[in-house]
Amino acid sequence: QVVLVESGGGSVQAGGSLRLSCAASGRTLYDMGWFRQAPGKDREFVAAISLSGSTRYYADSVKGRFTISRDNAKNTVYLQMNSLKPEDTAVYYCAADRDREFYRGSGYVATPSEYDYWGSGTQVTVSS
After folding, report:
1. β-sheet bridge partners, residue 125
2. pLDDT of 84-126, one tens digit each?
3. In a 10 Å sphere around its CB, with 0-12 CB exposed, 13-18 middle and 19+ buried, how is residue 125 labelled?
4. Which residues contact 126 (CB under 8 A, 6 or more apart)?
5. Nearest Cα to Cα of residue 118 among 38, 36, 55, 10
6. Angle at 126 between CA 120 and CA 4, to 5 degrees
């Protein structure tokens, strides 16, 4: 069993930055992803990183502004968010994929149902 706990959310003005963290306990050798969900919308993919950290994926909407990274020694995945926009406002979730199938590409890593474990989320609010 894996338990994921997100932290680092908050309220910032447009153009600001936040760094989200996702701490994992239990067996943690998995590929990881970040998703977000705004009120009334479906959960959408934000970024993903392979176990080794060598492969990263980003949604087009965050490319160039967000950076995903991980520290396996600390069992933690990070999402550095810069140049935040009001449309980035959402609850952000981290997720773990135990099947190690990131080689399938962007379509696979962006699908929420392919992930096996989820955190409870952290709120990010960006004001204009």
Report:
1. 11
2. 999 999 999 999 998 888 888 889 999 999 999 999 999 999 9
3. middle
4. 11, 12, 13, 14, 16, 84, 85, 86, 87, 88, 89
5. 36
6. 15
Q: Give the strand pairing for 122-127 and 44-49.
A: unpaired
Question: For residues 16 and 89, what is the distance between their CA atoms, to the nearest angstrom?
Answer: 12
Q: How confident is the model at residue 1 (pLDDT cuts 50, 70, 90)?
A: confident
2, 28 Cβ separation under 8 angstroms = yes
Helix or strand (DSSP H, E) at 108:
helix 106-109
* pLDDT tens for each residue of 24-64: 997 667 999 999 999 999 999 999 999 999 999 999 999 99
- Which amino acid type is present at position 90? A
24 Cβ partners below 8 Å, 6+ apart? 2, 3, 4, 5, 30, 32, 75, 76, 77, 96
